[in-house]
Design goal:
With about 500 residues, the protein is an alpha+beta fold. It has a single domain, classed as Outer membrane efflux proteins (OEP). Helices cover about 65% and strands about 10% of the residues. The chain is elongated.
């Protein structure tokens, strides 16, 4: 067996011998699309960050609520003296205790609006978490489809290498009996070498796709994934109008923009408290004495109300309100831009979906015709009525047709995932129900429970201890990553 044939056989097996020698060192995981998404939900750090932000928003609301509670303070002081001061005053040391309490009675709506801002912030954190989950689902789906697509490309290149090897064997046999020229042999060898390089590139693309998905779903990057599915076509019957209407009503970004606008309005109302007085209830008690004369003791207490009012603050409050007006206008423009962007994203994904759908049927026919054309070219070449160049050209068009077909399937499935994300298809909570529950005055936890579409969605997310960095399975740095052996069909 020649060196080229040995290399071809190794490539057709999908991996070089060095990869085979290390395949046992990595874990092998059977995986499908649902597994990929669920692993991403469980392990992806972006989701954990969003959950931690949600808990931070909860405690910010707790802090805002406590601003209306009374505050109590206590202080103790003491002093010691000697020398001439002692002779003049006849005591060694003095001490004093004091306690005070203060509670806001009226702040011009400043505290009330601060609570509103914090409450809306917690709602925003819930919606941001749902938005993050939807984004992670879309990315995990896309990465999984990358694996399926690159695996298909390996199959295409394997078929090309196999076909060109068989043709080269035929050309060599005819050359030995003197029926073809040496140039046919050389040209066939060059085309085979180019196909072998393309197969190596396809295998590398597959390796990178596996490593990328492993990293995204929290597995060591050298884990061998064995996808259990193939890219397939399933008809999508919705119209562009229905998809757009659904997105504008259900996408978390729309609700997030509305809550940000309400926050900006609450901030502006809070600034108006600068024009109003502030009233506090206050009380204090003092107890002091001097030693050694224990009868030299004093005690006092006070209780009442204090009021302060900035009659003129140099125009600071007026400037702050004008700044808030500009910020509010900016937020309104941003909210409108969000809706326009959502409509654009839905339209682009929908059009990509329809274009890919048309390409699937077109490229499927092209594959059938290219296969037939290649068979005809082979027969004509064997009969001596056509050239080697015609066979090579027919093989190239067959490889191109198969590549286009698999790419159309890949584009259709990824466009479907992008359309789901653009529409805001829910993961854990129904955004519309959540917003309705919040408008009814229910807390964020209650709104989550009412809007939950899964058992996990009703659970209040909390921050977790950061997981350790995922590392490879202990291979030497010089060793290649392990990937699945992609067997040709």
């Amino acid at each position: 067996m020649t060196v080229k044939k040995k290399l071809t056989n190794l490539l057709l097996a999908g991996l070089l011998s060095l990869s085979l020698a290390t395949a046992d060192a990595a874990e092998i995981v059977d995986i499908n699309l649902e597994d990929s998404v669920q692993r991403a939900f469980a392990n992806n750090r972006t989701i954990k960050q969003a959950a931690a932000n949600r808990e931070s928003a909860f405690w910010s609301l707790s802090q805002a609520r406590r601003q209306s509670n009374p505050t109590v303070s206590w202080s103790l002081s003491g002093s010691y003296q000697g020398g001439r001061a002692y002779r003049d005053n006849n005591y060694d040391y003095a001490w004093s205790n004091s306690a005070s309490m203060s509670m806001p009675l009226y702040t011009g709506k400043r505290l009330e609006e601060a609570r509103e801002v914090a409450r809306l912030g917690l709602n925003l954190a819930d919606l941001n978490l749902e938005n993050t989950l939807q984004s992670i689902r879309m990315q995990a789906t896309s990465y999984y489809y990358d694996i399926l697509h690159t695996r298909n490309m390996i199959e295409v290149e394997q078929g090309s290498v196999r076909t060109l090897q068989e043709h080269l064997d035929n050309v060599n046999a005819q050359f030995r009996v003197g029926t073809v020229a040496k140039s046919d042999v050389l040209y066939s060898q060059v085309r085979l070498a180019n196909a072998q390089q393309s197969l190596i590139s396809a295998q590398n693309n597959y390796d990178n796709a596996v490593a990328r998905l492993n990293n995204f779903i929290g597995l060591p990057t050298d884990t061998i994934l064995r996808p259990q599915e193939q890219l397939a076509y399933s008809k999508y019957d919705l119209t562009l109008e229905s998809c757009t209407a659904y997105a504008l009503e259900n996408h978390p970004d729309c609700a997030i923009a509305d809550y940000q606008l309400r926050q900006a309005q609450a901030n502006r109302r809070a600034l108006k408290s600068g024009y109003r007085p502030s009233v506090n209830a206050v009380a204090s008690k003092n107890f002091s004495g001097k030693e050694p004369f224990r009868d030299n003791l004093s005690e006092s207490w006070t209780a009442g109300v204090s009021m302060s009012w900035n009659i003129f603050d140099g125009g600071i409050t007026s400037s702050e309100i004008k700044e808030a007006d500009a910020s509010l206008a900016s937020t309104e423009e941003a909210a409108a831009a969000v809706r326009e962007t959502i409509q654009l994203n839905v339209q682009m994904a929908f059009l990509d979906l329809r274009a890919a759908e048309k390409n699937i049927s077109t490229t499927a026919i092209a594959v059938e015709r290219a296969q037939e054309d290649y068979k005809i070219a082979q027969v004509r070449y064997a009969a001596g009525v056509d050239t080697n160049l015609a066979v090579m050209d027919a093989e190239e068009k067959l490889t191109e047709a198969r590549t286009n077909y698999y790419y159309a399937l890949y584009s259709y499935n990824t466009a479907k995932a992008e359309l789901d994300y653009a529409m805001g298809i829910p993961v854990s909570i129904d955004v519309t129900r959540y917003v309705a529950a919040e408008h009814e005055g229910k807390s964020a936890d209650q709104a989550r429970e009412e809007a939950a579409i899964t058992e996990e969605g009703a659970i209040v997310p909390v921050a977790e201890t950061p997981a350790p960095v995922v590392k490879m399975s202990g291979l030497d740095d010089a060793m290649p990553l392990n990937t699945e052996l992609v067997e040709s069909e």
